[in-house]
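Could you join me in thinking about how sequence relates to backbone shape in a protein? To get us started, please write out a protein record for me. Would you write everything just below, so we can both look at the same thing?
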Amino acid sequence: MSIASQPNTQVTTPHDPSSHVAGVRFQKLGKLYHFDFTDFPDLITGDHVIVETTRGLQMGQIIGFAPREDDKREYKPILRVATPRDMLLRQQWQSKEVEALINCREAASKNGQYREVKFVKAEYTFDGATLTIMYSTEDRFNPNPLRNQLKKKVQAANLEFRQIGPRDVARIMGGQGACGGPRCCSTFLTEFSPISIKMAKVQGIPLNPTEITGMCGRLRCCLIYEYEQYVEARKQLPKRNKTIGTPLGEGRVVDIFPLRDGVNVEIDDQRHFVAREDIIPLEEFRALKEKAEAGCSKNENGGCDCGARRPKSSSQDLNAALDLAHTATTTQPQTGSTDTSQDEETSEKSKRRSSRRRRRGGKKRKGSASENKAEQAGDQKESDTKSEQSSGKKKSNRRRRRSRRPRGDEPKDNNTE
């Protein structure tokens, strides 16, 4: 959905015709068409030019310049720059459009076969060569009898009838929308984007025709304005009827508020609003636990290194997470001394769980080969140091005993003279 941009009335630097094309608009909120301005490189935004279209020569205003998308594509050239005489001719013929529309409605009222046809607007080209009557109808329409009657009353070489849709009718008629402001289609919208009923469902709008349809009888164009924001916000929140954990306990989601970033949860027949950061995904935790406890489905005989055959550590972590989540959902918020008692109970439970894990895992885990060698080397070194200390003590004891023994008691050598 594109939005009309107002032409810049200030003098701007001319663009290079070899790399840019000029965007020309023929109506205030009409579609933007691109033309080649090689013959007029000095054109700037806001200039009026004459170009050739399927409806003949038309006057348009340059809204801006855009880079060429493809060098092989051929753009129609701008024929010439509008002169003051061209501007005066357009004003004269625009003043006759209301009279032409009145004549058309009078001629159609005299003929009974045009009762279901709504004639909306009459439009002259800038030089009065072609008159276009815009109408809206749901039935088939044969304009030949009406064309023959109007040729006698209007001054135009060519008379055309063009059927338009309900949204184009609302754009031409103007007026106020359901919000109380001017209609978007007659204010800033240049093209109509497809609108679906899904956009209303995602935004939580009641599917009441008076709530989702505009003055044209079609779905409102404003339903697409915030659709993407609602979709992104809903991705972060749980779906309806899903069981989640909250600080108040375990409950079921009954309503979603994307803009408030939270949900309504039903707990014990009472509804409570819970913000997104306080939501505990219990179902996801349980699913991860079951997956961690399950064996490897790729190779039941072993030889798989994906980690699915080693569920001990992962399952223990998930069990701890589930226990904490269950504790958070089952404990009600209280004040006073109950807070300390709850903290003590929680710490005791965690201690019991850790002790059970240690008993399950064994008294002592076996280390790696390098760690075992290091321990053996350390034990050998300690034993060597102990043996050296014991031998040193024995030698020192012998010396002490010898020093204490008297000289007379020394043994005599038989070989002495």
